Structure formats: structure tokens, C-alpha cells
Amino acid sequence: MPDRRVPSAPAAASAARLLLRRSSARTGLLASAAATVAVAVATVCLVLAWLSRAVSVAGDPPPPGVDPDEVADQVAAGAAALASASPALVVLVALLAGTAVAQLARLVAAAREHETATVRARGFSRAQAWTTDVAEGAVVALAGTVVGLVVAAGASAVAGAGALAGLAPWPWALALAVLLTVVFAVALRRGEGRRSSARTTRATTAAVVGVLLLATGLVVWQLPLSRSEGFDPIVAAAPAVVLSAGAVVALAVFGAVAVAWARPAASAPGLEPGYPARQVARRIPIFAVAVLLVALTVAQSVFTAAYGATWTAMTTDSAAVRAGADLRVDLTPQTATTALVAEAAAVPGIDAATGALVTGVEIGELDAQLVAVPETALDTVVTTAGGLVDPDALAADADGAVASEPVELGDAATAVRVTVEIAGQNGTNAIPVLLSAVLLDATGTPAVVTLTGEAPPTGQGLVSYTAQGELPDGTAPWRLLALLLGTPLTPVPPQVSVSIVSAEAVGGDALELEGTASLTNQTREAVLWLADGGEAGAGEDAPPVAAAVTTALAARLGIGLGDQLEFRYEGVGRRGTATIASLVDAVPGTAATLALFVPMQTLLTSQLQRGTSIVVPDSVWAAGDTASADGFSAALGDRPVATAAPGVTASIVGALVPGWWIATAGSALLSLVAALAIVQTLALARRRELGVLRAAGVTAGRQARMRAAELAVVFGAAVVLGGAAGVLVSVLIVPSLVRAVTPGILPLAGGVEISWPPLGIAVVGLVVGLAAIVGVAAAGVHRAARTATVGEESR
Question: How would you write 22-40 as a 3-class SS string?
């Protein structure tokens, strides 16, 4: 009996007409292949257009206070890092599209088996077959490419970037079209040839799986060593290789579970669940590609959600640790005065501000960073950087450490007045002295105020001297930390003893201060009073400060909690001693792994125990909205502002996050197109079952429900297994990939996070699409089963 799937043609019909009619007989599958190419081309064009736009608008407007040349350098660094990472998206889309196109080509070859045999019988050679298969693939790819470019141009225009932006990556679209043409032609030819045995196919599949797993091991091993300094094949291949391996593992689990479940399911009475379970187990090769594509898409969705959330957390946390606060301005070589801090705190959008010290220190032969911030600012200004900074550990105390108890001046205080008695020693006359006060405003920022008064008379005996200093601009209430004593330059070294008679806060209460200091042996400066519990003037025997030390620094020094270390201030030769009160992973305000933190108040007290001067703050830190950076910079002399947000370079690389979501949306469409074609082909291959089941008394509605349950279980299993594979892939490579493509990520930033809302939207969208395919398939079964008869396919 003649095959009705081959259209009748005259005996003299040319080979071209036969081939044309053979192609037109499978228009649906060929259209699905063209749609797959269109989706792939549109996805690649939109992804690359988005990344290109991110580079073009970066640094516009430039960050406040940053030189345009420096911004240009940052943009160039970001563009280079983006160029090294963007191929990964194209490779993944090409892999998914190639898999879908290859499967569709195999379905086309299987569906036209009789037509192919007829053409061969008419003398069609192998060379002619290759030529026609390549030509057919080229036509499919060309049609898909044209549609894809039109879609990309339209989507780009709707997004406001202009149609030309979507067409700009046309060379990539052309390269992808050529690749998919080759894949389609090879898969079609292999399907028509049918020369490989089942054993050979299984061996080839096992080899491919083995190579894929070995490649995954190589990627996981090498990816942490990659850096964003140009194209890196490991970075480009990592997502595609590891996601493919995850999808293959998911497919293997699906096949094993399907086969294992078929036997106990078949022992149950009735058709369900035995019949659908046996059908799935028997047709795993057909279901395999659908399961693979769906699992790969879901895994990609999880990976994208994890990459986006992890990138945001790692870049933000790294920037926050480096800045120390939401906003920061470094003033070196100038100092952070209380007036500047108050002016910065008054900027709209700023909640609190304080002065901070970040300076280099030497510990033995090691170079480290010392950070000092007022302890009150740990809860109001200093960022926790997503949990990387522990304020409680930074404020930890240690036994025997420096104590500091400044005296409150009161809210209404306007000045400090001090009366002292000066006595000459060794028969010398009393001489004038200079007094100054070290004050702390409400933010903890220090200020040194000179106290002035009428010159005291010189002569024998005790001489009384009263001096007063107005409080500087700053934030009330103020506290008194120390009174310092000095003498004018004179040819003869001073020989005097000075003691405090009384002290008061003008506009406030009297201050109970007691202090005595002597200026002898060419000493011209001394600490008259210090709020340290009586340890003033202890010199080198002064107690150490309690410090929080990074674990890296402690490990390099081989010390632990309770141990002491000595440090030297870089450039000034001053020394200090610290007791390790706590070990921390990070010190805010520095990217150095070798660092220590000391509260500002105790550090100042320790400095005054060893001398008569302090190392003043050199930067202003503030808590508030990073959008206030312009005003914050203007208040501090139009200086650059470091924020707890990714900079220009990192922001450019951040365009990969929406780029991955665009690629994921395209992958979902690719999977749905391929799944629909596979389900429709499967329905054509199983039409005989419908007549047999109808003859056995199974109603059309019941057959439709069984088919729907069968497909729902297959797709549901693919979604679940793909989700598990995505989580595994994310844990394996996402943190390393973020570090590899983004400059400036600190080593301590890590951990995998997932952005659940977009992931939920992506998975729900895919599930809805699969549900629609299941519904269409069930409706088709219901219609066909109502009229199907036994032997219908053989007539």
C-alpha cells in the first residue's frame, strides 16, 4: 500500500520538486526549528545590546569630585571586565539553542523516514543528501535570523534604546546562525543515515558525559584563579559547562527514577499509574531532550537568581568594608575638624557623621592599617557590610587596657575656663605658660582648643593664671579629654611647676579636675590633666589599648586573644601598644587583610599618655542615602566620595545581572518551543495507542487525563531536578565567577544568596508555559481518541 505521507508526484518529477514537497510535508517541525533560531538570535542581540548600552552610559554623570580622566579609566576597566564575562551568556544561549535545534532535526529525520527512503530509491546520492540538508538548514536559519533581528530591533526600540541598538550585534547573530545551520544539517543527516547502533550511541553518550564531568571539574578547579583582565576561556565556558553537567545529572536521575518506578507502578490494579509510568520508561530517549532542556532552563534560572543576589551582596559588602560607612571623604593631608563633621552631618539625606582615622602602621616588618572611629559611631555610622563587620567585636575591651572617661561639659557650655598656679623651681621665677584643651564633640571627633588669658606676672612664689577658650564649631554636648601645658620659646629652659586650681565649663557647671605637671630639664610640654584614671605621664609604661585585630594579621604574627603587639605610626615615628581584645574578619574602612581597629577615644588617650600631641582624624564618615554623595562632596570641598555601593567599574560589570535574566528569558522560550515540538511529535507517534485504548473501553476523557498526568509528571520532575541542579551549580561556581568578572571584590566577601522574587517569576512563567503545552497535548488526545480505531495508522 502506498505511503500517504509522501505526496504523489509525476514519474518525471525532478529531485528538487521531491525535496520541496518533502520539506513542505514537515512544515510544523521546520517552523519550530526556525522559531528556535529566531529566539536564540533575538536573545543574543538583546543581551549584547544591553551590555553595550551599559558601557556607553557608565560614568555619566561622573561621580562627585572625581577627575574625568579617572572616570574614563574606571569605565575602561569595567568595559574590559565586561568583555571577559559577556561571552559566557552567548555560549550558554548557543548551547541551549544548539541542543534544541539538534533534537528538532532528529525529529524531522524520524518523521520523514519514508520520504527519505523514497528519495534514495530515486538515486539520491550522499553528496546530494548533504547538500540538500545543509540548504534546508540554511533556509531555516536564515528565516529565523531575519525574524530574530526584527524582534531584537523592535524590543530595543520599545525599551527606548533605538532599533539600531538591537541590530548592532548582527555579526554575532550571523555567527550564531551559521553555527545552528551546521548543527541542524549534521543532526538531520545523522538522523537520516541511521548508521550508528544502539551500543555505539550509548558509548558515545557515555563519552560525552565523561568529558562534560571532567570539564566541570577543570572549571571548578581553575575558576577561582581567574581574574577580570581580558578574555578567559574558563570564565566564558564555566556557566555553560557546569549547567550542562548539572542538567545531565538531572536527566540521569530522571531516567533512573522513571525506570525504577515503572515496575511497582505496573503492579497496581487499573491503568493508572502503571500505563503512564511504563510509557515514560519505554520512551525515555524521546522525553530525554525535553527533560534536559527544561532542567537546564530551570537550573539557569536558579543560577541567574543566585548570581544576581550574590553579585549585589559581594560588591556592596566589599564597597561597604572599603568605605567603612555609607559615605566617606578622605581629607589627607588636611584633618577632619568638628566643624567639617557638623557641616557634613547637615547635608540633606545624611543621618549622622563622624571623624575617623585611617593610617598605616608598622608591626615588626609587616605593613598594616590602623582604623580608629569613635565608639559611639559604631552603632550610628559604621556599616556592618552585610554582617562582615561586627560592631560588638570592634568595641570589645581587655583587662588592663587603657581606660578613658572624658568629663561632660553640659549642653549649654560655650567655653572652657581653667585657673592654674605656677611656681618657679630651683630658685627661678615663674614664667608664662600656654594652656590648651583636647575636647570631643558629640560625634566623638576631637578638637584642640587654645586657652588664652592675661599674661601672668613673673616673680618668686606662686603665680595664678586664668585662661579660657571658646568651644569651636561642632556638635554639642562636648566633653573634656585632656588639658595640655606648654611654654613659649625662651633662651632659658623653663623650671616651673603648674597645678590646677579650678576649672569650669562656661555656661555649665564647675569641673572637678586635679592635675600637676612640671616643666624641667628642657621639657617644654606636658599633660596637665588626662581623663585616663590617673595614668597621665606614664610614658612607655602606659597600658596598651584594646584592639580588634583581623584573623589574617593575628595568624601572620602568631598571636591570639590577650597577646600584645607593638606598632609604629607610619611617617611620624610614634609608637603604641595594643592588646588583642577580639579577632575579626574585617576592619571597616580598609581593604587590607592586615589591619587593627581601636576606638578613637581610647587611642587618643593612649597617645596623650605617651606624649602631648594626638594623631587627628583624616576622613569624614557618614550614614545616610548614597544618593546624597553630591551634597556630601560639596560640603567637604568637592572631594571624591567613596560609598558603600559599587563604583563605576563594578556597576558596568553589574550589567551582567539583567543580561543573565534576558538570556534566561530567551532560554525559557527556547525550551518551550522545543518542548511543544517534541510533544506534538510524540503525539503523532502514539496515535495507534488511542485506537487500542478506545477498543479496550478507555474513554477519550480518560486518555486525555492520562496523557496530561504523564506529561505533567515528566515536566514537573524536570523542574524539580533542574532546581536542585541549579542550587548545586550556584554553590560550586557563583562566588568564584563573581570574583573572576568583577574587580575589587574583597577575599572575605562570599557566600551564595538567591534573589527569590525574580526566580519565582521565571519559574512560574516557565511552568505556566509547560502547563499550556500539557493542556494542548491533552486536548489533542481527547479529539483524536474520540474517532481513533485499531489499524487506523496502517490504512
Answer: HHHCCHHHHHHHHHHHHHH
Residues 117, 209: one domain? Answer: no
Same domain, 122 and 12: yes
Say if 792 falls within a structural domain. no
707/713 Cα distance (integer angstroms): 10
* Residues whose CB falls within 8 Å of the CB of residue 277, separated by 6 or more in sequence, listed in order: 258, 261, 262, 265, 266
Q: Determine, yes or no, domain membership for 524.
A: yes
Cβ 665 vs Cβ 350: under 8 Å: no
What pLDDT is stored for residue 350 in this prediction? 95
Q: Which residue has the higher pLDDT, 395 or 285?
A: 395
Residue range 726-745, pLDDT digits in tens: 999 999 999 999 998 888 88
pLDDT tens track for 103-135: 888 877 776 666 666 666 666 667 767 777 788
Of 168, 195, 222, the residue at which a domain comes to its end is 195
Length of the chain counted residue by residue:
795
Residues 525 and 560 in one domain: no
Return the CATH number at 514: 2.60.60
Element holding 423 (H helix, E strand): strand 415-424
449, 466, 448: which is closest to 457 by C-alpha?
466
The string of pLDDT tens digits covering residues 644-660 is: 888 888 888 999 999 99
Which pLDDT score, from 0 to 100, does residue 121 have? Answer: 66
Helix (H, G, I), strand (E, B) or coil at 697: coil
Do 16 and 127 lie in one domain? The reply is yes
- Is 635 inside a domain boundary? yes
Question: For residue 370, which amino acid is it?
Answer: L
DSSP letters for 522-591: T--EEEEEETTTS-TT-GGGSPPEEEEEEHHHHHHHT--TT-EEEEEETTT--EEEEEEEEEES--TT--
pLDDT band per the 50, 70, 90 thresholds, residue 789 = low
d(CA 582, CA 551): 9
Pairing of strands 545-550, 575-584: parallel
183 within domain boundaries: yes
Q: Are residues 182 and 209 in the same domain?
A: no
pTM for this structure? 0.85
Q: Are 167 and 148 part of one and the same domain?
A: yes
Lowest mean pLDDT among 262-266, 375-379, 766-770: 262-266
Residue 673 CB: number of other CB atoms within 10 A? 24
Which stretches of 38-114 are assigned E, i.e. beta strand? Answer: none
- Give 230's pLDDT tier (boundaries 50, 70, 90): low
What is the model's pLDDT at position 792?
A: 46
Q: What is the mean pLDDT of the chain?
A: 84
9 Rama sector, left if φ>0, alpha if ψ -120 to 50, beta otherwise: beta
Examine the pLDDT at 697 and tell me if it is beyond 50: yes
C-alpha span between 306 and 317 (Å, rounded) = 16
How far from each other are the two terminal CA atoms of the chain, in whole angstroms?
8
- 155 within 8 A of 164, measured Cβ to Cβ: no
pLDDT of residue 573: 74
Q: Give, in order, the Cα–Cα distances in Å from 222 to each of 247, 310, 737.
A: 21, 20, 11
Q: Are residues 292 and 175 in the same domain?
A: no
- Residues 4 and 126 occupy one common structural domain: yes
Counted domains in the chain: 4
Q: What is the DSSP letter of 452?
A: B
Q: What cell was used for 156?
A: 530595543
Which residue did the predictor score with more confidence, 458 or 433? 433
Tell me: the pLDDT tens digits for 65-88?
778 888 888 888 888 888 888 888
What one-character-per-residue DSSP string does 100-146 give?
Answer: HHHHHHHHHHHHTHHHHHHHHHTT--HHHHHHHHHHHHHHHHHHHHH
End of a domain among 172, 195, 218?
195
State how far the alpha carbon of 293 is from the alpha carbons of 244, 297, 445, in Å: 10, 6, 61
Distances (CA, A) of 625 to 325, 565, 629: 11, 38, 8
Range(s) of the domain holding residue 569: 325-402+542-643
Q: Which of 18-32, 324-338, 743-757 has maximum average pLDDT?
A: 324-338
